[in-house]
Amino acid sequence: MTVATTDSREAHLKVWSLIESGLESNSSWRQMFFDFGLLATVGFDQPFDEHDVKVGELAEQLDLSAEVVVSELRYFIRQNCLWTTDELVVGMDTALKVLVQHGSPEEVVDCLLDFSPYAKRPGVLQALRLAVAKRDDAEVFQLILSEFDR
Length: 150
Description:
By secondary structure, the protein is mostly helical. The protein folds into two domains: 8-80, no CATH class; 85-149, no CATH class. The chain contains nine helices and no strands.
């Protein structure tokens, strides 16, 4: 049965069902959504759009427009994959690896601090400093982070 794109409830159920089954059975999907959720949490632009290969595969498989699939994917991420500040602090090494693939060190630091509630910023900064110290590009980050020492 072909689902008309105007039947948003049916489209929603089909996309979410496919996402959930994919997340259960496919570790690369879990990692992809983990990464997308992190990027969405800290306010990076969405790392995929209507032209993404995975979006195209889902759209074709479900016989839906890529626009509907992207909309549902973004909604799914907002509802299920967003990180808390505490999770970010604990997973800062991992978070940093993902974020630097999508933005400059300045953007990464700005997004992490903009996302963090004021009371939790000291914890985020400390975790970020510890994670940065382990990286090959630590100098670049340390220059940016030194501005917060003043």
